[in-house]
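Replying to the earlier thread about multi-chain prediction with a worked example.

Input:
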Amino acid sequence: MSIETSQSPDARRLDEGRRRFCQAAIGGMAVVATGAVAYPVVSFLRLPKSQRQQEAMEIALSDLPDGSALWGDHMGRQIVVINVDGNIRAFDGSCPHLGCIVQWEVASRSFLCPCHGAIFNDQGQPTGGPVNAPLRPVEFVVTDGVLRIA
Amino acid sequence: MRLLKACYEALDKRYHITPVLEKNLTKKWVPRTLGWAACFGGLAFLVFLIQVFTGVLLLIYYKPDPGRAWDSVTFIKSNVPMGWLIQRVHSVGANLMIALAIMHMARIAYYKIYRAPRELHWVSGVILLGLTTFLAFTGYLLPWTNLSYWGASVGTEIPGAVPVVGEQIVTWARRGPTISGETLGFFFAMHVWVLPATIVVFLGMHFAMIRRTGISKPL
Ligand code: FES
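Result:
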C-alpha cells in the first residue's frame, strides 16, 4: 500500500494541517486514557483508611478461659488480653524492645517475645531478655461479661 | 521530549531499533480483507495482561487465609481507594477473557484456519483455554464466600467420575477430603503463580508459531 501525496502546494499544506490535527488528537486521547488508568491505580496504592480503626474492640469473657490469651486489633495496635486465675489483664502486644508481637506461653504463664527472647511475667513486668521496660497495660471495661476497649 | 528523542536516537544508532519497529509495528500492513473478528485472540491477550496487572494490585491486600480471606476482599472493596474498581475489573476480566478466547476459537473453527500447517496453533490454543478455565476456577475460591466455597466443592467433585483414580484426584485437588484452608492455599498458589506462568509459556509458543507460519489469508 502506498500513500498518495497531493500535488499542489495548497493541498499539501492542507494535508500537513490534517496530519498535525490527527497527531494532536491521538496524543490528547493517549493522555486522557493514561490518566483514566493511572488515577485508579495510584489511588489504590494510597494508604487505605481503615474503618476498623474507629471501632472499639470487644471480647466475650466466656471465650477466655483461665490461663488463656486472646489477641485483637484495636486502632492499629495488637492487643493481648489474658486471664490468670480469673484476673483479666490487657496489654499492648508489641514488645517494648523493638516492637515484635509477643507470644503467650500457657505453661509458664508468661509472655515470650519471638524476636530477641524478651520474657515478661503475667503482670507484664520484664523478667529476662534485652528489655527493662514492661508491656504497656491497656484500659478496658467489663460489662455483662463483655470486655471492651474503647 | 528533546531529551527522550536524543536517548532514542542514541539507542537506535547502536541497536538499530527502528527497522525492527517498522517491520513489526508501524509498517506492518494488515490484509485488507481481515475484519474485526480477527481481533478476538489479541483482545483475549490484552485482557490477560489486565488480569496480571490488577491481580498484582489485589495481592497487596489479599490474605490467603480462611480466617481473613473474606475480610480482606471486603476491605479491598469498601476501604481501599478505587479498590471496588480494581476488584471488579479483575472479576469481570476473568469472564471476558474466557468469552474472548471462545469467540477467537469459534472464528478459527468456522474458517477452518486450524488446518495444516497450523494444527499445533489450535492444539496450543485448546491448552490455553483449559489453563484459562483453571485460572478462573481457582480464582473463584479466593474470596472465600459461600458461593465460592460451594463452587469449589462442586468443581472438585467432577474428577470423581473418573474410574478407579477419581476419588484420589478429588482428594488431591482439595488437599483433603473437603474444601478447607489447605485448599485455599493450594488454589492461591495455582492462581497467582503456577497457572499464569504456564499460560505465559504457552502464549509464547502460540505467538511464535503464528509468526513462523504467518496468519491465514482469507480466501
Ligand atoms: S523485639 Fe522483643 S525482644 Fe527484641
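The radius of gyration of chain A is 32 Å.

Feel free to reuse this layout for your own posts.
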